[in-house]
Structure formats: C-alpha cells, structure tokens
UniProtKB/TrEMBL annotation, chain A:
This is Hydrolase. Keywords: Aromatic hydrocarbons catabolism, Hydrolase. The keyword Transport does not apply. Belongs to the peptidase S33 family.
From TrEMBL, chain B:
The active site is at 184 (nucleophile), 330 (proton donor), 382 (proton acceptor). PANTHER family: EPOXIDE HYDROLASE, EPOXIDE HYDROLASE 1-RELATED. It comes from the Bacteria. It comes from Catellatospora bangladeshensis. GO terms for biological process: epoxide metabolic process. GO terms for molecular function: epoxide hydrolase activity. Keywords: Aromatic hydrocarbons catabolism, Hydrolase. This is Multidrug MFS transporter. Residues 10-114 form the Epoxide hydrolase N-terminal domain. Belongs to the peptidase S33 family. SUPFAM superfamilies: alpha/beta-Hydrolases (SSF53474).
C-alpha cells in the first residue's frame, strides 16, 4: 500500500476512555471553586449559579459516561485522513441497498452525540414509522477540532474547507450521489458544499436556512452593540413575517459575544480545557431558548432534552479536550452566519419555532432558487436532531424525497 | 451610635491571606489541564500556550504572594460602607500640610496593585524628584466587585454610581476639595465624577480621555465585526492625527470581544473562579498592545512590567475570587467607552503612545471645554500607573498644578 493509500484508509475506531480520565473529571467537578450568584433573578447574565451547581452535582454523582460511550460504540466508527487531518465519523448503512446516502453535519456546541437519535429512524425507516423507500445510509463526521477528529495545527479549516472534506469522505465511502443535512455550523457547511457544488452532492436539507438578504444581514452585523438601532432602520416594504424574523435577528446578533470571543481570541479560553464546570457553562449558554430548555432539564422538568443528553455532549468535549479547538472554527470562518451563500442545488428547509431566527418563505425562495421543500414545525429549536428527533426525521425524509 | 453612622464608620483592614488558599491555588496551577497550542505563530489568537505555561511555571515555583501582601499592608487600608456596599481603600496622607487630596481610580483588569507605585512619589514628592507643592493625599479605592470591596448582589453599580460613591468617600474622609485621576474604567469613572460634578471635586486627570465625537464613536460601535467598513466611511475633513486615531479605534473596537462577553454574559465565565490559568489568560488578554507588553515579561524581556507585577494583580483577583464580579461592571455600564461624557470641570489629559487610542488635542479641546493640560508621552500604554509610573506621576503633578 502506498503512503497516500494508507492515509486514505478507513481505520475502525472505538471509543475507550481510560478510567483515570473519568476519575480526574470527577475530582475536578467536586473541587470546583464557584463564583458568587448572578445579580439578577433570571438567566440574562448567563446560566445561573444554581443551574450550573445542579449540573455539577448530577455530573459528579449520577452521570455515567460509559452508557454514552457504549451507545456511540454500537455504531461503526472510523478514522480516515483527509487533507492531512484525521476525521472521525460514524458510518451506518441501511439494510436497504438503494438507500440514499446522507452526511449529517453537526455544529457548535454540537457533536456526533447530538445526532445519535436520528440514526436508526433514518437507516431503518420501516421500524420507525416510515417506509423502506425513505431509507438513508448515514454518515456522521466530527468537524476538525471536534470530538475524536484531529485538531488542526495550522489555520485553514474554515467551513468551506470542511464542506469539501465531507464530500471527499462521501466519495471515499463509495457514494457518488448523496445528500447533506445540517444545522448551526452544519447548516453553513451544507450550504457551502452546495454553493461549491462538491462532486456527487444532489441536494441539501437545512434546519438553519441561511437566507438573510445582504442589506438586512449587514444592518444586524452593525448592531452587535446596538449602535445601528437596527429595528428602526429596516428597509421599507417588509412583510409581517419578515419583520418578525428581523426582530429575532436583532436579538440573536446582540447575543453572539461567545462567537465573537471564540472568533477573535480562542486561545484565551484556556479554562475550557481546565475547568469542566466552565466548559459546561460555556456550552450550555446557547441562545436564550436553548439555555432555558437545558436549565429546565436540570431543574427537574420533563423536557425533550434530558440531563444525560446535555452531559453526554459536554463530557465528550471534556474528554477530548476540544473546547478551544472547537472554538477555533469561529476564528477560521469568513462567511456571514445567516447570509445567502449562493446555493443553486435543490434545498429543503425546515423552520423550527425556537430557532435563532425563523427564515421566512419569501427569503428562502430568494436565497435558494431551487427550493424543493419549506415547512414550519410546531415545536423545536436550534438542535432539532437532539431535542425533536421525530420531527427532524420526518423533515429529512419528506424534504429530500424528491431528490431520490 | 446610630445604624447609619455605624455603616459609615471607617474600619481598618489588613490583607491576611490564609496558607490554605495559597496551597489550593498552587495545586490548581500544578494540575492545569492545557489546551493544544494555538494554530498561529503569533499571539493573534490570545496569549500563546508557551506564554501561559511560562507564567504557570513561574507562578507555581517562584512567585511569592506574601511579598505583595506585605507591600499592600505597608499602606493604611480601610473598609467603609457606601450606599449599602463595603468599599476597600488605601488612604495615605502626605506629611505636607497643603497637600491636595486625590482619588486614584483603577479599571479592568486593574486593581489597587496597579497604583501602588504612585503612592510614595505622590505623597512624598520631595523624596521623589518633586517639590512640596506637588504633594497629594492619596486615596485608592477598589471598585465594587473588585479586590477587597464588597460584591454587589443586585444590579445598579454602573460607573456613574461608582463615581458618586467615590465622591462620598472623599467627603467622608474630610476632603471637601479634591481631585480625581483614572485610566480604563477609572477614566470613565473620573469623567462621570466630573460630568455629575460630585460634591468637592475640583478637577480630573485622565490617561484615557473620553473624547471621541459622537458620529465617529457610533461608526466604530457599528464596526465591531467590520460590517460598517468604518475606515472607508469616516466623516470628511479629519486631520492626519484624527485619521490615525480612527485607525486605532478601528483596531480597538474589533478587539473588544472580552468586554462584550462580560457585558452580556458575565455569569457564564465561571472558569474565572475555578481555573487560575484561565483567570490569568483572561486578564492578560486586555488589548493586543498591553498583552504584548505583559507577555514579554514572561518571555524574558521585562519592559515596564515585571512578572511579579503581572502576577500580583492576577493573584489578587484569584484570592478575592473576583473574576466574575469584576466582569459584571461591563454588564452594568450604559456609557460609551470612549465617547464624550459632558465634563465642564477642569481636565488634564495625558496621552500615552500605546493607549487604545491617542486622543487628538482637537478632540480633547471639544470634549473638555476646560482643558487645562494636554501632553503626549514618549512611552507607555493603557496601564500607565503600573508600567510607567514616573511619567504618570509627572503628568499628575504637572497636569493638575493649576487646579487648586
């Protein structure tokens, strides 16, 4: 075998975390030194001390990583080197040979863990309320710097590069016609796969449509500290739905400080490597609705996202020490988060009501000239594969049906 | 004695750190789990891993907090309750009868430690190159949430309220005519003392003049992520000096993610309480020029600041567990950092070349109609009291000579 072929080889990979790493994690959680309580009676300063303390208690006393590890290891996992970097991925083939191959793209602070619930319904639809012709062969890669993928040692792994790497991965797996799905960074990655028309890609499904018109996108980008008074300077002629989306964008752009910090000074966030509780607080400080959902889970509420769901993801970040390397994606990025990326391929859009912003159909039609599906869901937010897997699976099946 | 006068009592305070706290800090530094190295060959992603590891090495093996503690305890320290909160301050009276009282206001990530080098030259000028007429009675308070001052448990301690509290402190010490000096937040505090004309204040000295014209201030606030293309949209008619200042503001406003993070989500930064190394890297990463200066001292090139200077300040934050509470000042603030605050009292301005921006004389004259002194220094940056105390002492003496 040549060196090139060796690097391109698919090497089976099982997760086997040493006991010592888990003991160290637990010791650090138990020895957490806390800040004082927030000075407000809500979550407007970030995850509340009581929430994070309850998370720490559960994490140290009840949480079982081995359960999550075993679950991850029930799926075939591999490493393969692409563009000089090891990429970890799960590859779960359907028993239906003619199933449509799909690459599921996670974002931040996501991981393969946030996509596990949808693997079986997508690969074996007949056993999960679907039909055989809805079957997918599922590929779930970890982004560079995330999970068990390698950590880039030099700049250059922006989302466009990740998009090309996913295409190479699909080709390497023998898929010469496939689709791609994503949310958060994954949505940007699938948009950029489509905009670059990577070989073999037939179309995409996104649950975070990037369709904000350039003028409006720029207005909110100028309003990070509120200095553009954006909602009073909207272009004329917007529909009610578009105005509502603008109000959501206004809020979102005023709450992206974590993204700006990671984008400008990721290395300063050394505490993500050193303090498990800080890592947890940083990762759960999502947009307001996501944080509220997670906080309710730790307050004992019956939520679609369980405490174990949340901690599976945080623990994966901890054990792989990827807080800082994952943050670097923001420093690598040169694309607008929500702006139009120039996709001509077929696109299916699902709009979940608690998403950062609800992409109006009018914008989706302009942003994606080949829009094959647009649907607004009744429940769910920024991480639908994690918190609303059934709706997500329905949407992927329905949205991409015409591309088979 | 009534309850009110009890609260207003001035109680002597000595810094006495327990051995156990120092041992715990040492153990945490030794057990730091590190992120990978930055992906660049410079410090554009934040303090480099090598810098932080050199800092940790020195902090754990060579650094002696008790030296700093003894130095602080040389000066009379007190607590007094103002507006429901304990304020810690040093109060050093000059032996010169006609000395003028001055309150010296630190900022973030500063503390009283930053100001210690000024005390003797200001109180005892005849022993430090000055004349008896240059003597000051020096008061150095810690801001709410900083050092040994109390931590607010509710919202409301913005810089304007701090300004009023400092006015009250000076009055309580029996000073009915006094001056104020500040940089960073301290500059905003003294501007707001001036703008509010707190009782007894006769003038201020600032080493970070708040003088940016409203139109330009707004332009750069809209340019935090570069979306306003500010340097191509400057107002017409600027002088070369003003244009150069605009370039500095452009750079500065693109490097304020730390400020925005603390302003919007201070509670998320729990790692500042839990990880000494994260606290250190967060405090080092103020602005790129200051960071370069501080980093050099750990790379063996002391310039103005020694390693002990840097670690005295960081250790002070650590031992008082004030990373998060100090960060909250950004959340409390409703003022433009560099904008005009409306000061009519006499103002002396010193402009250091490595400051975040060099206030042009033209702007200083407009913003401070009673500008009594303006001088550009050959050396020094954002933390003038700490790194160039000789220059700053000269500036305070000269700048405030006419304000009596």
């Amino acid at each position: 075998m040549t060196a090139t072929a060796e690097r391109a080889a698919l090497r089976p990979f099982r997760i086997e975390i040493p006991d010592a790493a888990l003991a160290d994690l637990r010791a650090r959680i138990l020895h957490t030194r806390w800040p004082e309580r927030e000075t407000v009676d809500d979550e407007s300063q970030g995850p509340r001390l009581a929430t994070v303390q309850e998370l720490a208690r559960y994490w140290a006393e009840e949480y079982d990583w081995r359960r999550c590890e075993a679950r991850l290891n029930t799926y075939p996992g591999y490493l393969t080197e692409i563009d000089g970097l090891d990429i970890h991925f799960l590859h779960v083939r359907s028993q239906h040979e003619d199933a449509l191959p799909i690459v599921l793209c996670h974002g931040w602070p996501g991981s393969v863990v946030a996509l596990l619930k949808v693997i079986e319904p997508l690969t074996e639809p007949a056993a999960h309320g679907g039909r055989a012709e809805d079957a997918f062969h599922v590929v779930v890669p970890s982004m560079p710097g995330y999970g068990f993928s390698g950590k880039p040692a030099a700049p250059g792994w922006g989302p466009d590069h990740v998009g090309r790497a996913w295409a190479e991965l699909m080709q390497r797996l023998g898929y010469d016609r496939y689709v791609a799905q994503g949310g958060d960074w994954g949505a940007i990655v699938v948009d950029l796969m489509a905009a670059q028309e990577v070989p073999g890609l037939a179309g995409i499904h996104t649950n975070m449509a990037c369709v904000v018109p350039a003028e409006i996108d720029r207005l909110f980008q100028q309003n990070v500290v509120g200095a553009a008074d954006a909602l009073r300077h909207l272009p004329a002629g917007l529909s009610e739905e578009e105005r509502a989306a603008c109000a959501q964008l206004d809020f979102t752009w005023k709450h992206v400080t974590y993204a700006l910090q990671q984008g400008s000074r990721p290395q300063t966030l050394t505490g993500l490597a050193d303090s498990p509780v800080f890592l947890a607080a940083w990762l759960i400080d999502l947009e307001a609705k996501g944080l509220a959902l997670i906080s309710r889970a730790f307050a004992g509420g019956e939520e679609p996202l369980t405490r174990d769901d949340v901690l599976d993801n945080v623990t994966l970040f901890w054990l792989t020490n990827t807080g800082v390397s994952a943050a670097r994606m923001y420093a690598e990025n040169s694309f607008s988060f929500f702006g139009v990326k120039g996709v001509r391929l077929p696109v299916a859009v699902s709009v979940f009501p608690d998403e950062l912003y609800l992409a109006p159909r009018s914008w989706a039609e302009q942003g994606y000239p080949n829009l094959v599906h647009y649907h607004r869901l009744p429940a769910g937010g920024h991480f639908p594969a994690w918190e609303q897997p059934a709706s997500y699976v329905d949407e992927v099946r329905t949205g991409l049906r015409s591309l088979r | 004695m009534s309850v009110t006068s009890d609260a207003a009592a001035i109680r002597p305070f000595k810094v006495e750190t327990s051995e156990a706290d120092l041992k715990d800090m040492h153990a945490r530094i030794m057990h730091t789990r590190w992120p990978e190295k930055e992906t660049v060959a410079d410090d554009t992603q934040g303090p480099t891993l090598a810098t932080m590891q050199a800092l940790a090495q020195y902090w754990a093996h060579d650094y002696d907090w008790y030296r700093c503690e003894a130095r602080m305890n040389q000066y009379p320290g007190y607590l007094t309750e103002i507006d429901g909160l304990d304020f810690h301050f040093l109060h050093i009276k000059s032996k010169h009868e006609n000395a003028r009282p001055i309150v010296i206001c630190h900022g973030w990530p500063g503390s009283i430690i930053e100001q210690l080098k000024l005390i003797e030259p200001l109180t005892d000028p005849t022993a430090h190159g000055g004349t008896a007429e240059d003597a000051f009675h020096v008061v150095i308070p810690s801001m709410p949430g900083y050092g040994y001052s109390g931590k607010p448990t509710e919202k409301g301690w913005g810089p304007d309220r701090i300004a009023r509290a400092y006015g009250e402190l000076m009055n309580r010490l029996g000073y009915d005519r006094y001056l104020a000096q500040g940089g960073d937040w301290g500059a905003i505090v003294v501007d707001l003392m001036g703008a509010q004309e707190v009782p007894g204040l006769v003038g201020i000295h600032t080493n970070m003049a708040g003088v940016v014209p409203a139109e330009i201030d707004n332009l750069f606030q809209r340019n935090v992520i570069g979306a306003a293309d500010a340097l191509h949209n400057l107002p017409a008619g600027l002088s070369d000096e003003e244009r150069a200042t605009c370039e500095q503001l452009d750079f500065t406003w693109k490097h304020v993610a730390y400020a925005l993070q603390m302003g919007s989500r201070p509670q998320t930064l729990t790692g500042l309480a839990d990880s000494p190394i994260f606290l250190a890297s967060w405090l080092l990463d103020h602005d790129p020029r200051s960071m370069a200066l501080i980093s050099r001292s750990f790379a063996g090139v002391p310039e103005g600041l020694t390693r002990d200077d840097v670690l005295d300040n960081v250790t002070h934050f650590w031992l008082t567990n004030t990373g998060v509470s100090a960060g909250r000042l950004y959340a409390e603030n409703a003022y433009s950092f560099f904008g005009v605050k409306g000061v009519k009292l006499p103002v002396a301005v010193s402009v250091f070349p490595d400051e975040l921006y060099q206030a042009p004389k033209s702007w200083a004259e407009k913003a401070y109609p009673n500008l009594v002194h303006y001088n550009k220094l050959p050396k020094g940056g954002h933390f003038a009291a700490w790194e160039q105390p000789g220059y700053l002492v000269d500036e305070i003496r000269t700048g405030l000579r006419s304000v009596r």
